[in-house]
Design a protein that fits this description.
alpha/beta, 2 domains, five-stranded mixed β-sheet, about 35% strand
């Protein structure tokens, strides 16, 4: 007489009970896809993009500018970031970030997010994807439509990448002896 167990499948934050032979929980968005972040909750999974609430996995407590290590957790806040995972899927992340207070100087500062510049709403990997699309001769309007951002944002990402490459070429040391 076979024993039938229930299989739980997690999809879009809801749990459905399905017939199966063993107990397993299947995650819709594995942690491997978004490096440096811990997934708290999957809000929406779609073909064009997925929405998830995540928390930044930080290695140790950050240092204050005064050099002190005496910090306390001061506050938490949310940042909304568009990110491209390692498998190429687009994610809209709602990142839970922390703010710290230095007990020596009284300064309040926030943690740095890996791969995201301060005040930015797009990860560096997302911007690199926009530039690679542009390099494959896709126009700005089409890129903006595909990734659901404005054409001016695409233009700024492209200009910043090419400006960065130009600065790298200018900084090469000149030879001391010519000829």
């Amino acid at each position: 007489m076979p024993v039938i167990f229930s299989l739980y499948v997690k999809d879009c934050g809801m749990v459905e009970k399905k017939e199966g032979k063993e107990n397993k929980k299947c995650s819709t968005m594995p942690n491997v896809l978004i490096k440096g972040y811990k997934i708290l909750r999957t809000v929406r999974v779609g073909q064009d993009f997925s929405l998830a609430e995540v928390e930044h996995k930080q290695s140790g407590i950050p240092d204050c500018l005064c050099g002190s290590h005496r910090l306390i957790h001061y506050d938490s806040y949310r940042r909304y970031i568009k990110h491209v995972s390692e498998n190429g899927a687009i994610y809209h992340l709602k990142v839970k970030c922390k703010r710290y207070k230095c007990l020596d100087c009284g300064r309040v500062f926030r943690e740095r997010l890996e791969g995201v510049r301060p005040y930015a709403r797009h990860s560096e990997r997302f911007k690199n994807r926009l530039v690679s699309e542009y390099a494959r001769n896709v126009c700005n309007k089409a890129i903006a439509r595909i990734y659901r951002i404005s054409a001016s944002t695409v233009e700024r990402a492209i200009h910043s990448r090419y400006e960065q490459k130009l600065k790298e070429q200018i900084n090469y040391p000149c030879p001391e002896i010519i000829g």
